[in-house]
Amino acid sequence: MSIDPNYALQVLIARLEHHLSVISQSRGDNDSAVDAAFGSLADAFEAYDDAIYDKYGELLPFSIPNDDA
């Protein structure tokens, strides 16, 4: 079952705001809160990307970087 794109967008916006809040208060490169916020944001991005593809057949013009380099 696909997620409503409007709902997915609202979640993505909230995760973007949370990510900004966390990185603005970061305590350095090894701050686990930043890693968690990044993961949460990436999940929300993928959910939104899937939702617009399922409903409209469209994709976003960018992707989440992969750490497998």
Structural features:
69 residues; 2 helices
Task: Walk me through this protein's architecture.
This protein has two helices and no strands. It starts with a helix and ends in a 13-residue tail after the last helix. It has 69 residues and is mostly helical. The model has no long low-confidence stretch (mean pLDDT 91). It has one domain (5-56). 65% of the residues lie in helices and 0% in strands.
Q: Layout of helices and strands, plus pairs?
A:
Elements: H1 5-24, H2 32-56
Compose a concise summary of this entry:
This protein is mostly helical and 69 residues long. The protein has one domain (5-56).
Residues in β-strands, percent:
under 5%
How many individual β-strands?
0
Q: Return the string of H and E elements.
A: HH
Helix content: 55-70%
Number of helices: 2
Distance between the first and last residues' Cα: 33 Å
Low-confidence stretches: none
- Which shape, going by the Cα principal axes? elongated
Structural class: mainly alpha
Query: Main beta sheet, described?
Result: none
Number of domains: 1
Rounded average pLDDT: 91
Radius of gyration: 13 Å
